[in-house]
């Protein structure tokens, strides 16, 4: 018997984005740090995204895409990512990280001349403005937003976008998660705060930390995606640092009119299934039986 009909609290999201970060492809496909098969780990993530069947509006690649800016590593990355994105019907947005090389990034991912100025790009994703801001400092692990970049960003944000703005910046504007991480934090964050405060900025997404962190910056929610390659082991002693060949995954970012939801999706490997498995048809039948309906996303 069907229960009393009701509409779910939220409609389906207006936008769904997949964030993949810190892929760290190496020259000649060598194992990263002699251990990590970065290409296989990314292939596993892309296969997982495809298997979910979630409609994806864009694929965000949020920096440290290679380990040392090797041109061949960028080409292999592109050869793996672009067909997977095409199968999803989603464009790929590439963003710089501190391990990346601007000239090689431009030439091999963007098909542009190999120049070395910051790579700051504005994209329109069905009315959602996505700004990729280059926080890298060539040859350094720490990040910055220069005065020129802050002025440019403020100009871009001076008029609102239909669905607001999402900022991609590799170095997160948050307190760091370990003592040593102050060596590679985002410096002089006040410039970024002045540029984004009071604008239509919906959320800021980053990578860099090799773990999933969330917080607030200038009144705006911030979320980081863990590394596909390897994770920061937060079970290490507080005054130590340790990486782990595991714990990778991606973030699912869902934009609603009233809110933004960030979901960390770990790669679960071959762990045993717990509890019953519900298929798409099982779920649809249960919702129908219990009288719960979700408004469809509006066309954009």
Mind explaining what this structure looks like?
It is a single chain. The chain has 300 residues and is α/β, with parallel strands linked by helices. 23% of the residues lie in helices and 24% in strands. A 6-stranded mixed beta sheet has the order 5-6-8-10-12-11, with helices on one face. It has a 5-stranded mixed beta sheet with strand order 4-3-2-15-16, covered by helices on one side. The mean pLDDT is 93.
What is the SS-derived class?
A: alpha/beta
Strands across the major sheet, in which order? 5-6-8-10-12-11
The first-to-last residue Cα distance is 36 Å
- How large, in whole angstroms, is the Cα Rg? 20 Å
Weakly predicted, low-confidence segments = none
Mean pLDDT: 93
As a percent range, the share of helical residues equals: 10-25%
How many domains, in number, for the residues? 1
Largest sheet entry: 6 strands, mixed
What is the annotated CATH architecture?
Answer: 4-Layer Sandwich
Reading off the top of the CATH hierarchy, the class is best stated as Alpha Beta
Per the principal axes of the C-alpha atoms, what is the gross shape? Answer: globular
Name given to the CATH homologous superfamily: Metallo-dependent phosphatases
SSE pattern, N- to C-terminal: EEHEHEHEEEHEEHEEEEEEEHE
Examine the coordinates and then state which fold CATH places here, giving the name of the CATH topology: Purple Acid Phosphatase, chain A, domain 2
Beta strands, count: 17
* Total of helices: 6
Strand content: 15-25%
């Amino acid at each position: 018997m069907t229960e009393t009909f009701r509409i779910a609290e939220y409609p389906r999201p207006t936008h769904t984005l997949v964030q993949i970060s810190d892929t760290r492809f190496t020259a000649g496909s060598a194992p990263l740090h002699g251990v990590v098969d970065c290409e296989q780990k990314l292939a596993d993530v892309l296969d997982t995204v495809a298997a979910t069947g979630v409609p994806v509006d864009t694929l965000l690649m949020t920096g440290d895409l290679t380990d040392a800016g090797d041109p061949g590593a960028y080409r292999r990355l592109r050869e793996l990512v672009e067909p997977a994105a095409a199968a999803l019907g989603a464009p790929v947005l590439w963003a710089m990280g501190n391990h990346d090389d601007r000239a090689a990034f431009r030439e091999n991912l963007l098909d542009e001349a190999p120049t070395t100025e910051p790579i700051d790009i504005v994209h329109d994703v069905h009315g959602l403005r996505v700004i990729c801001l280059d926080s890298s400092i060539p040859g350094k692990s720490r990040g910055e937003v220069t005065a020129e970049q802050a002025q440019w960003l403020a100009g871009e944000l001076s008029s609102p976008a239909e669905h607001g703005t999402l900022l991609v910046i590799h170095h997160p504007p948050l307190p760091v998660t370990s003592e040593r991480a102050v060596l590679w934090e985002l410096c002089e964050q006040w410039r970024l705060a002045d540029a984004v405060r009071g604008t239509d900025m919906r959320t800021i997404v980053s990578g860099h930390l090799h773990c999933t962190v969330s917080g607030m910056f200038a009144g705006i929610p911030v979320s980081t995606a863990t590394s596909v390659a390897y994770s920061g082991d937060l079970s290490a002693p507080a005054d130590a640092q340790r990486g782990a060949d595991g714990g990778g995954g991606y973030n699912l970012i869902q934009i609603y009119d009233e809110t933004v939801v960030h979901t960390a999706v770990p790669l679960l490997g071959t762990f045993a299934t717990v509890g019953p498995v519900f298929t798409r048809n099982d779920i649809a039948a249960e919702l129908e039986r219990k009288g719960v309906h979700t408004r469809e996303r509006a066309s954009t």
